[in-house]
Amino acid sequence: MEAPVTHDIRQRKADHLDLCATDEVAFRDQTTLLEQVRLVHQSLPDLDLDAIDTSVELLGKTLKAPIVIAGMTGGHERAAEVNHTLASIAEARGYGFGLGSQRAMQKRPDTAWTFEVREHAPTALLLGNVGVVQARDMDTEVIAKMIEQVGADALCVHMNPAMELVQPGGDRDFRGGRETVARLVKELPVPVVSKETGNGISVETARAVAEAGVKVVDTSGAGGTSWVGVETLRAEGDARELGELLWDWGVPTAASVHNVVSCGMQAIATGGMRNGVDAARALALGATAAGFARNVFKAFVEGGRDGAERFLIRVEEQIRAVMLLSGASTVAELRTAPRLYGSELEKWMALTDR
Questions:
Q1: Domains and CATH numbers, the chain
Q2: From the centroid of its chain, how far is CA 350?
Q3: Which of 45, 252, 256, 316 could form a disulfide with 219 if both were Cys (CB 3.0 to 4.6 A apart)?
């Protein structure tokens, strides 16, 4: 018997694109807590704006700016245009680029072309993407072939239990995740990046993936797009009720970055990045790069390639401005620049001492 249309991966990907083009799926009350990072203004920075160095090293490649266009989509014809266009921007500007979940590619090999962006981004840092639950049930060799097919430099292994609990036809068995991550770290020919999908990284999770050998984590913290919210809008009955209750569930982005960095790993700070000031605050917390997803997609929907690129150039300019006003000539110096933290963020940060 064929699965109902609501469980069809292709339809789900189309629904996700439609919903994420709006603000309807944002967190309602929970913020990223990045607003609680206050960098101290320096009136005599003794810097030349044009000479500020925004480059960073991530997963063996140099990014000209500390920006990753985070994984969003794939598995649908419309997704191909999004991926190909945004990947070309990443190539031109020196950013990283992430693919959406390649589960669709696994289930429907005819959708593989929607993930194949190397023609448009031959040298950019490219991140593949597979769910930890799906990876648990796949041979490492199969996953390695998926990575090779798209030419990814690293593989994001995403963790999304909250989203799955609400998603029609979603997973319910999350056993074996830690062992799966450890196996992939050991056996894959590329680095593994642990990634959340909108609910952030607790210090316990950060410690677990660090023990498994992970060196880089994509935080996808609470406060940006609620993927629980996305699936809630697609759900019915009890699942929709649960989704409404869990809409704002998660660890805020700022706290997630702190948790990852405190465990000795590099952080890609995703989850509610609105502009370059948010990105700079995340970098000050210790993130290596900031990831943008829904706001880039919205700019693309509204203005095509030019609109998305203009948005990202503004982000670069804003990061550079905050660096100058904080007296930081490099991203490394920004991490040690004077700052104040708000009380709620301090409470989250204190959890790492337990």
A1: 19-353 (3.20.20.70)
A2: 24
A3: 256
Nearest to 228 by CA among 169, 167, 151: 167
Q: Is 339 exposed, middle or buried (0-12, 13-18, 19+ CB in 10 A)?
A: middle
Per the CB < 8 A criterion, the answer to whether 59 and 125 are in contact is: yes
- Contact predicate 227/250, CB 8 Å: no
**Dist CA 50 CA 320 (whole Å):** 9
pLDDT in tens, 189-228: 999 999 999 999 999 999 999 999 999 999 999 999 888 9
Two tokens at 173?
A: 């068995």
The Cα-based distances of 223 to 35, 131, 270, 276, 331 in angstroms read 11, 22, 10, 16, 24
Assign 9 a pLDDT band (cuts: 50, 70, 90).
low
Q: 131: pLDDT confidence band, cut at 50, 70 and 90?
A: very high
Please state the pTM of the whole predicted model: 0.93
Enumerate the β-bridge partners of residue 291: 68
Q: Which pair of structure tokens corresponds to residue 65? A: 């700016």
pLDDT one-digit tens code per residue, 282-295: 999 999 999 999 99
Please give the Cα distance from 98 to 125 (Å, whole number): 8
C-alpha to C-alpha distance for 128 and 134, rounded to whole angstroms? 14
CA distances from 214 to 52, 218, 284 (A): 31, 11, 22
Residue 111 tokens read as 């959708």
For the chain, how long is the longest CA-to-CA vector? Answer: 70
